[in-house]
Amino acid sequence: MSIENIGTVVQALIALIAIANPIAAVPVFLSLVPPNDPVAQRLAARRVGLSVFAILSGAVLAGRLVLEIFGVSFAAFRAGGGLVVMLTGLDMLRSRHWEPPEEAVTITAVDQLIVPVAMPLIAGPGTIITAMTMAARGSAVGHPALVLTAVGVVAAVVWVVLALSGLLQPRIGMRGQAIVSRFMGLVLVAIGAQLVLGGIAEFFDLASAVRGH
Predict the structure, then answer these.
(1) What whole-number distance in Å separates Cα of residue 213 and Cα of residue 38?
(2) 24: Cβ–Cβ under 8 A, 6 or more apart, which residues?
(3) Contact between 5 and 145 (Cβ < 8 Å)
(4) Under 8 Å between Cβ of 101 and 32
(5) DSSP letter, residue 204
(6) What share of the chain is helix, strand, coil (3-state, %, to 5)?
(7) What's the distance, CA 119 to chain centroid?
(8) Is 172:23 a contact under the CB 8 Å cutoff?
């Protein structure tokens, strides 16, 4: 793997982990699994990790087809996706998080692990759009495969964090979760701004214009 490809994987990995923010999902996850049962927690964490991988992989693999169907250019999607990432980062900086609806809905424990933990707490709209943007912003062959590599690592990180959630939450605490969330939000704002500026430059072909002068 070349240095450029490694850079692509690392950038996608940082963006996806920052916006997925599995630590923020720990309290909800622990409320849905049997307490003081590490085996059940590990099984539930594996189910969530596999669900996150399936959701984000689908976004990466189907992203180009969706854009072609709706006639959206990669540059426009990159700019729009970057804007969503920026807004998500700003929400994290202001400590605004997704909350479940008030109306009661009868669902099974397995369904609760997928909704809301896997989606939208972890693989939410912002995470899905980030994965699609990372895969669609370049036309080089193999680029989606690099993003899929990052998706696989993210799913593994989610798996490990949730499997160890019973040990992590007492040590991190609410203040620690808030600090991590705000830091990740700042990272997302920067990544989103880079995507927006890159999409605008690509859409108007500003790089060629500068070289022409």
Answers:
(1) 63
(2) 97, 121, 177, 180, 181
(3) no
(4) no
(5) T
(6) 80, 0, 20
(7) 10
(8) yes
Please identify which residue in the block is written with the tokens 């939410």.
Answer: 124
- Taking a C-beta distance cutoff of 8 angstroms, is the pair 92, 182 a contact? yes
User: Do 164 and 33 touch, CB atoms closer than 8 A?
Assistant: no
**Encoding tokens for residue 17?**
């982990």
pTM over 0.90: no
- Report yes or no: 33 and 40 within 8 Å, Cβ to Cβ: yes
- Sign (positive/negative) of CA torsion 2, 158, 18, 109? positive
Helix (H) or strand (E) holding 77: helix 74-93
Torsion of CA 195, 199, 201, 204, to 10 degrees: -170
Residues 6+ apart with CB under 8 A from 18: 89, 184, 185, 187, 188, 191
φ/ψ bin of 21: left (φ > 0), alpha (ψ from -120 to 50), beta (otherwise): left
- The residue written with tokens 């040590």 in the block is 171
Q: What is the largest CA-CA distance in the chain?
A: 67
Mean pLDDT by 10 residues, the chain (213 residues): 76 87 83 83 94 94 84 81 79 64 49 79 83 68 78 96 84 74 79 82 66 50
pLDDT for 156-196, tens place per residue? 999 999 999 888 777 777 777 678 778 877 877 887 888 78
